[in-house]
Write a structure and sequence with these properties.
homodimer; 3-stranded antiparallel β-sheet; 3 strands; about 50% helix; DNA-binding
Chain lengths: ~110, ~110
DNA sequence: GTAGTGTGTCACCCGCGGCTGAGATATATG
DNA sequence: CATATATCTCAGCCGCGGGTGACACACTAC
């Protein structure tokens, strides 16, 4: 027990647990070598799964798994192109990526 | 083998693997409930380990472990304050947090 | 000195998530 | 139709990282 509690900082044991569910979900999506690589590669336009797999030196089914995660989160879109309907081309959803970045800002940007 | 390769998009199997080490490291740091919570709580100023542990409903040694990770990455600083030298107060390094956010921008921001 | 509190360190356990392999589906060609 | 390529799905395995427990260390009060 402190001798002089008025000069000591008050200990706050009743701080509210912060709501970090959404930014945490965004961080978890980026916290994987292959998913981060996919998003980086797709910055320069759409690519098909086999191109991504070759660039990442991973198997296509593994890349497809990660693409499904990103697709479920809305960060990428899939589409078959007219002249090459066998392949599935993926492209970034820039609006969703910006939204995810905004979530991460709530963790890393000062409140001010 | 395509019958008419001139009308089909060229498949790029020689894409360079992107360098994502630094943004990946930043994402891995944020991709944990307790570390994300610590950064969120510290937005409103320094707090000691026991306060963080209480807010996160975690044991102090566990919180201390995560603080060490954030400290090694430079995102937070530790200091003992004059009037309360028993406790260790942690505060965000806003410059480092901004730098980490800049790394994540390389994944989520359009290149333009 | 001893006792008590706050924090740090580390080995260990264990669950979660990434990778794999097998199979299914889709599209094209012969 | 059969064959080939590209992608998708999912159960299972396994390594990595977070939580725990025990202990050491730092500081205060007595």
């Amino acid at each position: 027990m402190p001798a002089d509690s008025s000069t000591l900082p008050e200990i706050r044991l009743d701080l509210a647990p912060p709501d970090i569910e959404t930014p945490l979900a965004a961080a978890l999506l980026l916290a994987d070598r292959n998913r981060a690589g996919i998003l980086a590669i797709l910055r320069d336009g759409p690519h098909c799964v086999c191109e991504l797999a070759a660039a990442l030196d991973e198997r296509s089914n593994n890349v497809s798994n990660h693409l499904a995660r990103l697709r479920d989160a809305g960060l990428v879109r899939a589409s078959r192109m007219a002249l090459d309907t066998r392949r599935v081309y993926y492209e970034r959803d820039e609006a969703a990526c910006t939204a995810a970045l905004a979530q991460l800002r709530t963790l890393l940007e000062p409140t001010r």
